[in-house]
Design brief:
Length: about 110
């Protein structure tokens, strides 16, 4: 059985890469980010999980936030990726590719397909 704490830490790392990838494509605000994750098939990610990651990414200077007027309702804080964030995303993409390939290879051993 996988320890839930290990699983949680692994997921947070993957989530950081996914969030950077979304922000790379377009500036988004927190709630919109959770919707985009759900649309990509990453469900059950609460805003309570997203905002600490956004704060950490800001602290690491991978993203920055800017408050802008909303077309409807109150102002929203939009997040933008930085040059350091683009570099971090490249590293994540490379590491994910290596890890995914290795894990897939292990999981698929013995498959006759």
């Amino acid at each position: 059985m996988i320890d839930l704490n290990i699983r949680s830490q692994l997921f947070k790392g993957i989530l950081e890469g996914c969030i950077l990838s979304i922000i790379k494509e377009e500036a988004v605000y927190g709630y919109e980010l959770s919707i985009k994750l759900q649309e990509a098939g990453i469900e059950n990610v609460s805003e309570g999980s997203i905002y600490p990651i956004l704060l950490r990414l800001q602290k690491e200077k991978y993203i920055y936030g800017e408050t802008q007027k909303s077309p409807s309702g109150p102002n929203r804080k939009y997040y933008f990726i930085t040059e350091d964030g683009l570099k971090a995303l490249k590293v994540f993409e490379h590491e994910w590719s290596l890890l995914k390939g290795s894990v897939d290879q292990l999981l698929n051993r013995g498959d006759s397909n």
